[in-house]
Amino acid sequence: MSRRRPPVIAAALVAGAVVIGTTVAVSAEPEQRVVAAATTVGSTDYVALGSSYAAGPGSPRLVDRGCLRAADNYPHRVAAARGLRLTDVSCSSATTANILRTAQRPHAGTPQITAVTATTDLVTITIGGNDLRYIGRVADQVCVHRMAAASLASSRSTPAGCRTGRVPAPEPSAADYVDVEQSMVAIVGAVRARAPRARIIFVDYPPLVDPRAPFCAAVPLTASEIAETTRVHAGLVAATARAARSSGALLAAASTAGAAHTACSSNPWLWGIDTPSAYHLTPAGKAGVARQVLDVLRRAEA
């Protein structure tokens, strides 16, 4: 299989830092390596693991179309701001199993953890939402409403992004949250086995909806569905925090920083319905999450 020569981006403005001479090398495997001009002494190998909230779909600047991985996602922004060599294997729809043991075919030939090596200095992890069907459940609930409205209007067309027969998954059980927490702890163990010196940061999910705003046209759910979405998000955030504490990993709490930036807010970090990537990070959201990671790094180095 042939390899393409890497394009060179003359300059970038990311997270308040101007980076000159950023190079993106595209390999035959679905990963991206970014080498930014160093803004700190020395260089650091950075591996980004995770699902769509790390991959950053919805951007016209995709570096991997299968994974919907974008050049402006938070890992690329962090790498550019700190002058890190980035291997980004985040992939939309990934679960904890796709990091630990199961290749996400056809988009990846190996589990994401294989990108971590003995030279890796930094690893970020955003995962768990797909294990719990967090956003998938919201998408299905919205489609049920839209299909019902189309039926009442005697429309023969299927709403965009929807298909007949979609049934929202049931709300996760207590055991589901325990399972995802244990899988996150296992990911940290797998990272440490491969890269004993690596700094590991869990990056959690900004909230999609505000429970104090029971209806929002951007995320057209019922009051009970908004309450359910809030519970699932809170359970995922809590599981991530417990996994970070028990494993000794760091935590970038995008859930806290993003609380004022739901899809229904005046300055959303998440897209609403009928947008480039519904219920995922906007450019402002990607920048906001990158700031949280950079803040955690600064505090850890202080």
Reconstruct the topology from this structure.
Layout: E1 8-14, E2 17-26, E3 32-35, E4 44-50, H1 52-55, E5 62-64, E6 69-70, H2 74-82, E7 84-88, H3 96-100, E8 122-126, H4 134-152, H5 174-194, E9 199-203, H6 223-247, E10 250-252, H7 254-257, H8 283-301
Parallel strand pairs: 4-7, 4-8, 8-9, 9-10
Antiparallel strand pairs: 1-2, 2-3, 3-7, 5-6
* Uncertain runs: 1-42
Helix content: 25-40%
Strand ordering within the main sheet: 1-2-3-7-4-8-9-10
Rg over C-alpha atoms, rounded to the nearest angstrom:
19 Å
Number of strands: 10
Return the average pLDDT rounded to an integer. Answer: 85
Envelope shape: globular
Return the structural class: alpha/beta
CA distance, first residue to last residue: 45 Å
Order of helices and strands: EEEEHEEHEHEHHEHEHH
Total DSSP helices:
8
Q: What portion of residues belong to β-strands?
A: 15-25%
What does this structure look like?
The structure is a single chain. The protein is α/β, with parallel strands linked by helices and 302 residues long. The longest helix has 25 residues, at 223-247. Helix 4 (134-152) runs antiparallel to helix 6 and helix 5 (174-194) runs parallel beside helix 6. Mean pLDDT is 85; it is low at 1-42. It has helices spanning 52-55, 74-82, 96-100, 134-152, 174-194, 223-247, 254-257, 283-301, and strands at residues 8-14, 17-26, 32-35, 44-50, 62-64, 69-70, 84-88, 122-126, 199-203, 250-252. The chain has an 8-stranded mixed β-sheet, with helices on both faces. It is globular. The protein starts with 7 loop residues before the first strand and ends with a helix. A hairpin with a 5-residue loop joins strand 2 and strand 3. 47% of the residues are buried. The chain is built from 8 helices and 10 strands.
